[in-house]
Each structure stands twice: as structure tokens, then as C-alpha cells.
Protein: Cytochrome bc1 complex Rieske iron-sulfur subunit
Amino acid sequence: MSQPTEPRPSRQTAAARPTLSRRHALGGVAGVGLGLPLLAACAGDDSSATDPAGSPGASTGGSPSTDSGSSGGSAASAAFASTADVPVGSGAVFPDEGVVVTQPTEGEFLGFSITCTHQGCPVDSVSDAGISCPCHGSVFDLTSGAPTAGPATSALGAVQLTVDGQDISRA
Structure:
């Protein structure tokens, strides 16, 4: 003898009730997980380009920014190098700061990220030929940070600097 079984809900009943399938839930989580790094990367590029502290005169000179450096005393505005450390027509790498400082012409100091745009290796030397990455041979221009040789196709990221007398610091 068989016992009576309860009727199963029909497909119409299940379709009328909105549910989230496991496949759709995992797909949504994966989409958000993949999208966040892209948004963060875009936001990082925009924030350096629109840095309010780095507006007029932040890359060289320093007269518009000197008041903020003397009153704030923050670690970001502390001098990490002297102008004497950066040869004219070349530059110097400051790994602890993550910055390459170049002096293409006398008195013009420019900052770039030490992270090579090819595969993220740190650049390690600067000469009159450019900023060099030891991993795959990319070389970057002293003035623009644009690649002049090697596999890199994008310029090094700009770093805003303040020069106050002989002191070089981040803007």
C-alpha cells in the first residue's frame, strides 16, 4: 500500500514567485568583484590629476604651496630630498618615497611614480637617456615620463612636488 503524497507546486506557482537563483547571485557577486578594481584604478588616475593641493605651481617652484607645508607639518609634505641630490639633465630614484625626481633643465624638478607601467617593476636608475626599468628594459622620458624604449606603452604616473629652497617634498 502506498501512502498518499502531497502534491508538488506546479511550475506556474514557482514562476509567479520571484526568486534569485544561485547562478544569478554568484554572477552578480563576481561582476561586482571584477568591477571594483576597475573603478578604483580609474578613480586613482583622476584623483592625482585633480589633486587640489597640486594646482598652480605644485610641480615646480613652490611659492603657492609653501604656506600649507609650513602650517601642516604632515608627513606627506616633509622633505625627502635636496635639490643637490638630483643632477641636471638626469634624476634620482627615491624608493622609500616611491618617487623618481628628474631635473631636465636647471631648476625644473618633476616627479614620477617608480612603478613601471609594463608589469609593475620599480624603476631603478636615471641617466641622461631616461628613467630605466631593469625588468624588461623600458626607458621613460625625463620630462614627460612617456616610454621611449622597451615594452611599456604608457607613461609613468605623475607625482606632484613642491620645491622650497633646497628641499623637495610631495605637494
Observations:
- The chain has two domains: 21-49, 57-170.
